[in-house]
Amino acid sequence: MRSKFGDNEPQDVSYHGNAFLRLMGYIKPYWKTVALCCVLVGLLTVFDIARPRIIGDAIDKYITQQSAQDLPPETRFQGILIAAGLYVAILLLQFICNRLQYLKIQETGQNIVYTLRNELMAHVESLSMRFFDLTPVGRIVTRITNDTEAVNDLYANTIVRLFRNVVKIIGLAIIMMVMNFRMAMLSFVLVPVMVVLTAVFRKLSRKTYQIVKTRITTLNTFLSEHLSGMRVIQIFAREKEKCAEFEEKNESLYRAGVREMMVFAIFRPSIYFLSVIAMAIILGGGSALVLDGVISIGMLYTFTEYISQLFTPVQELAAAADAVRRATVADPTVVTWQIDRNVNITNVCISGCKFCNFHCKPHDRERAYVTTIDQYVRKIDETLALGGDQLLLQGGLHPKLGIDFYENLFRAVSYTHQTLPTNR
After folding, report:
1. What's the CA gap between 154 and 131, in Å, rounded?
2. Whole-structure pTM over 0.90, yes or no?
């Protein structure tokens, strides 16, 4: 659970609007390149579907069928060589299309992320000073660096891979039903199980990744703030305490990472196990149909290859969904406003800043005051009751308040509100 003053355990996030569609808006200036990549993806899908069909037809025409036995050996061998040459030619075309598509989409992705970084920098510079008072520098740096890299992967790899796998699954389903509807139904018998498993994985992976992302932000924030303030930590001899805090946050990130890894470690082997079962069903049912003369051995081979190709895109779709989530899931701990309260330690100050109309001199007994610990406790309780998120302890430079006063103050506040994180 997240406390009102921290982010120990993030809650699941609900989003207003579609972040994915918003990111897709950056593609508009490069729509011609993206259209070319989509055409190349379509060609690659056709090539993937054609390769098993070429081998299957060669097996039937030149090896197993009765008509093949009537052909001269030279003709049969020549036919196999033609099929092999066509297979190699398709592999070369696939290489060329893959290479061209990769270069074009990578270039487009880099251009989009370049624009996005410029917009982010302009947006950060336009934020109010209040935002930077409330948001740690480490959190801002994490958002600008880590999140833009996730968006870069979305544009450079995920979108095309997502489109290619969807087209490939649809293409395989159509060609299998056209070839033999009965064999296609045997191939699709485990599809409902696969859909349910994918839906469960999507829900679990989204939650676990949100936790990991928040823990990374928390750790980076801690490092940024404490490395920049290391001199203060050493002056007050707080090295051991801060090291213990770091170990706690590091352990928390480690546990979150293990949970995320376990989700993937269960899902991907499960999909592979389903593919093995589907292959066994195809081999068992297909062998019976071959013996009955309903289908040929070449068609059985083609279906076994299609089954392998059908389950591989499902695993890649899960990875693509994970990349989309990394690019679109926001950090719930990043906010632009907070409910806080400023409690003054004292209005006595010997600094005498010219812009300050608040302070008074030590000898001004009518105006001078020092907030007691009981008053602090009451003001903190009032802030919490009103839904406060932050408490700022501030005040003047009182010549009679030594370090013991502030140590006792923080000790008392930490004791009365033990779940309240403090930034000293």
Report:
1. 28
2. no
